[in-house]
Amino acid sequence: MSLEIIIIASVALSVTCAVLFVVQMLPGRSAALAERLAELEQAGGGAAELLLRRRRQEQSERFKSILQTWGERLEEHRGDSPVVRKFLVQAGYMSPGAVATYWGARFLLMCALGLGSLLVMPVGGVGVLTGVFAALWFAVLGWVGPIFYVRFRIRKRQKEIVKSLPDALDMLVVCVEAGLGLNAAIVRVSDEITHVSALMSEQLALVNLEIRAGTPRDEALRNLGERTGVPDVQSLVAMLIQTDRFGTSIAQALRVHADTMRTKRRQRAEEAAAKTTIKLVFPLVLFIFPTMFVVILAPALIRIVRTLEATF
């Protein structure tokens, strides 16, 4: 079977080389024609680029519509749509059809990987039973893969929010102590924090938009905690709601909470620095120590072997 694969690869390589040779031997454009074509491209480059963007957008929308169609059929038979929507919102997918697209992507990816591997395996000389098991494995991978991808996005977004939260709190404290109200301070911080974290700026801007749309401030803040899924943000939201309910000083509460966030960030850095010693044990044992043993002990072992050979 290996000989057949070598023959097929050789034929494919020969055909490719022949096509490239024919293309190279074709007569090129004249200089005047090439110059005229360049002028036309420069004159209509904007229109061509716009047309290309429209075609790509149409293809993307068509593909999304296919995903949503299959996803809606799967969504009808499941009762966990609110949980899945919250899961996708925390990953940044907040469009109305995100749930249907998610289910459609999982289903089509499962079918594509399963059928593709089932068709490719016999070409490589794999047995029928092994090919079926491999197809099942790839189908399961296609069904489960999007879950891990969405979780990766959630962890990445949460890490960015946790990293930028103390800076946002410091700005919020400064704005509130300068005389701004909480809503105006959130707007100001969302504008200024863009250079530090665009994600934090987006989340604060969404809070402001919800408040402008008529949502009560406590509900908008709770939505912020649910969208991010970060415990630090949820504790901040709970503190702001309690402060607003009991009428205590927002500036003082924010300052205390900001000090707590900075302390937590310093403790996380110290914890990460303390973990590096343990993490370095594995590369030391697996890579560095064997090399040192070879360099140090190999000459001694060679000398011992030579001495024993000379003796006996």
Return the string of H and E elements: HHHHHHHHHHHH
Q: Mean pLDDT, as a whole number?
A: 77
Instruction: Tell me the total number of β-strands.
Output: 0
What Rg is obtained from the alpha carbons, in whole angstroms? 31 Å
How big a fraction of the residues is strand? under 5%
Helix content: over 70%
What general outline do the C-alpha atoms trace? flat
Q: Point out poorly predicted stretches.
A: 17-30
N/C terminus separation: 52 Å
CATH architectural category of the domain at 157-270: Up-down Bundle
CATH C-level name of the domain at 157-270: Mainly Alpha
Number of helices in the DSSP assignment: 12
CATH topology name of the domain at 157-270, in short, is: Receptor-associated Protein
Characterization of this structure:
It is a single chain. The protein is mainly alpha-helical. The protein has a domain at 157-270: Receptor-associated Protein (Up-down Bundle). It has twelve helices and no strands. The protein has helices spanning 2-25, 31-43, 45-75, 81-90, 98-120, 128-177, 182-192, 198-212, 217-228, 231-246, 250-279, 281-311. Helix 7 (182-192) runs antiparallel to helix 8 (198-212) and helix 9 (217-228) packs antiparallel against helix 10 (231-246). It starts with a helix and ends with a helix. Residues 17-30 have low confidence and may be disordered.
